[in-house]
Amino acid sequence: MIRFLIRRAPSVLLVLFATSVIAFLLPRLVPGDPAAAVAGPDASAETIAAIRADLGLDQPLVGQYFNWMGGLFTGDLGQSLRFNRPVAELIGDRLASTLELALLAGLFLVVFGIGLGVLAGSVRARWARVLVEGTNTGLLAAPPFLVGLLFILVFGVFFRVLPTSGEVSVLDDPEIGIQYLVLPALALALPMSAGVARLVQTRMLAIRQEEFIDLAVSKGVPPRRISQRHVLRNSLGPAVVAIGIRFGDLLAGAVVIEAIFARYGLGQLAVSGAQSADYTVVQVLIVFAVFIAVIGQLLTEIVLAALDPRVRLG
Amino acid sequence: MTKAIDTSTNGPGDLPEDPGSGPVPARAGRRKRTGGDAWSRYASALSTPKGLTAAILLVLLIGVALLAPVLFPGGYDQQARGALAGPSAQHWLGTDEFGRDILTRTVYGLRTDLSLILLAVPVAMVIGTALGLSGYLSKTLGSVTQRLLDIILGFPGLILGIMIVLVIGTGWLALFLAIVVAGLPGFGRLARAGLLGEEQREYVMAARVLGVKKSTVMTRHILPNVVDPLLVQASVFMVVAIFIEAGLSIVGLGINPPNPSLGAMLNVGARYVQSLPTYVIGPGVLLLLLALAFTLLSDALNQVANRR
Questions:
Q1: Helix orientation angle between A247-260 and A279-307, rounded to the nearest 10 degrees
Q2: Residues of chain B falling short of pLDDT 50
Q3: Exposed, middle or buried: residue A148 (CB in 10 Å: 0-12, 13-18, 19+)?
Q4: Residue B159's closest chain A neighbor by CA?
Q5: What whole-number distance in Å separates Cα of residue A127 and Cα of residue A125?
Q6: Do residue B295 and residue A27 have CB atoms under 8 angstroms apart?
Q7: More confident position, A90 or B34
Q8: Rounded to a whole number, what is the distance in Å from the CA of B198 to chain A's nearest CA?
């Protein structure tokens, strides 16, 4: 495991380094003077100069980068240009909202992805197969925001059983908070879980053709045990990979879902930051998002090795 | 097996066509035939049920979008009396918060979406393919571009969009760039996979041995043999591009108002979903139809590509 991590370190670090450089350079790529863009059209020369100094734009580029990176490592994420508050504080305020959403969506992704896949891979009755496949194909074609809008139409207009707008923290009030969370999390997770389900299903059907299944059947292993121990376990590898690579999509999807369901999470923070040229906030969020996505992929490989003894990390 | 036979018409058969090594009339005749083959092959994709449905849908959607100024001569900014009025004989989908006809704006929004994807996806395809094939010219160039594409792939589509908006601000250009950049890795990797597959084949080596320039081998011999999966990918990516536009517009980073796009309509419409569901349903349905058309088209192209 340690050996594996050391071996993977260069490529992981390269991606993180590249991301940090790109995020760092963004404000400096803005045509014209980024400080003037931040200050707005009516700002005086002194204000612009002050913002230049705040952004560190008056220092040499490499020095600026190392200052900024040093800040990221020590928890000093800088100051928001729009809110005039530390970025760390802004992120701290919104973190719980997005975390709740991502965790529940992640749970749904695993449950529905693998559940639907196993169902589609094991049902025999024709009508059931058509039903499961149909659901799956429909979901596969729909992006999260369309499912979200559909939910808002159905639950906001016709069956008003669950709230479709706003949020209540699960930590403050678990019972109400979950109600606000269910629809956004489902909208985020269902389309992605269809992709996972499709993989599990194809894999299960392929595994059933393998010779070791024939051997197990001829040995007299009960069908249930064949399904669980022989087919299912061998089919989960691709599912784990598919779930792992969707970590980043989950975060990106959360941005849209938050907008549709009027939740104030990190996605909304990033969007308002991009709209109002609040560079310092967006820079940190970009590095943060890519970091999470990279960690997700590393975890994927570790889980994969745990599932399949033939895959050795190292 | 059929693939091997087919490449023989494009591959070694092409060899005498290189400058100075074959009679000119034969070259012209052969080129014409292979070109015609490719076209009729793609045309046969449209005769499958899926391809036909896709073609009809696309002709309808593009036709309506092109005819928008004729169908709705008032333009998308014309205001009527009532704001947020429900569907009526004059306003089939009702009017928006400024009293503008929602159906008109939806159709003009479709125009915006189509203008975006029909320009951005081919651009992404050309640049991505060039990046992917660049590995044939030099190994270093190849691995550098692959690293570059890996890094782009590390950013989820919407985050790329946010970064681009941060630099150049919201608008058509930001959406265009977001779609192009997001598309590069897909095309680049497919082109490289094709390149790695073809590079070692005899006809490529033969061309090299005969002294054909690397760049000519790349464009004339390798490219035609990797173009099928790239076209399928282009069709698949059209759907992704539609959803990138919609996603960025829904969060408010898309086309600047008052210009409509399907995503921008959804952005505002979502606020009025309780009182005026048609505001969301109209653009939502068009978005789905557009996605459906390109999905069916990619399926049909895929079938044809696999048949060879």
A1: 130
A2: 1-33
A3: buried
A4: A252
A5: 6
A6: no
A7: A90
A8: 28
What pLDDT sits at residue A309?
A: 67
* Residue A185 structure tokens: 């999390």
| Contact indicator for B15, B216 with CB cutoff of 8 Å | no
Cβ atoms of A37 and A30 within 8 Å: the answer is yes
Helix (H) or strand (E) holding B112: helix B102-133
pLDDT in tens, A44-74: 888 888 877 777 777 788 888 888 888 888 8
Mean pLDDT of A271-278: 86
Q: How many CB atoms lie within 10 A of CB A130?
A: 11
Place of tokens 């952004």: A55
pLDDT at B308: 58
Distance from CA of A30 to the nearest CA of B (A): 5
- Amino acid, res. B4: A
CA atoms within 13 A on the CB side of A101: 31
Write down the pLDDT at residue A311. 62
The size of chain A, in residues, is 314
Residue-wise pLDDT tens digits, B184-230: 999 999 999 888 888 888 888 898 889 888 888 888 888 888 888 89
Tokens matching residue B93: 């989908």
Q: What is the ipTM metric for this complex?
A: 0.80
Q: Contact, A157 vs B274, CB < 8 A?
A: yes
Chain A and chain B share a number of CB contacts under 8 A equal to 115
- The Cα A202–Cα A23 span in angstroms is 39
User: What pLDDT, on a 0 to 100 scale, did the predictor assign at position B20?
Assistant: 41
**Distances from the Cα of A151 to the Cαs of A112, B207, B280, B286, B291, in angstroms?**
17, 58, 12, 18, 19
* Dihedral over Cα of B202, B207, B208, B213: its sign: negative
Q: How far apart are alpha carbons B278 and B37 in whole angstroms?
A: 46
DSSP lists the bridge partners of residue B95 as B101
